[in-house]
Specification:
- The chain has one domain.
- Helices cover about 35% and strands about 10% of the residues.
- By secondary structure, the protein is α+β, with helices and mostly antiparallel strands.
- Strands 1-2 form a two-stranded antiparallel sheet.
- It is globular, with a radius of gyration of 12 Å.
């Protein structure tokens, strides 16, 4: 298993839990592209995507 702070393939968005508004920024096109390629978001990521309106 790769380390949590290892390299990433592509930046899809950001999440700042300390902000109260606009704390999730997601590039919906990139997320959709990765899901079509077979990527499976974790339960936590799926929850964040749902909050951001990306499904």
């Amino acid at each position: 298993r790769s380390p949590r702070d290892g390299k990433f393939l592509e930046m899809l968005g950001t999440y700042d839990p300390l902000k109260t508004e606009n704390n999730i920024k997601i590039d919906a096109e990139k997320v959709t592209s990765w899901v079509k390629k077979g990527a499976k978001p974790s339960d936590t990521v799926a929850s964040l995507l749902k909050k951001a309106g990306v499904e």
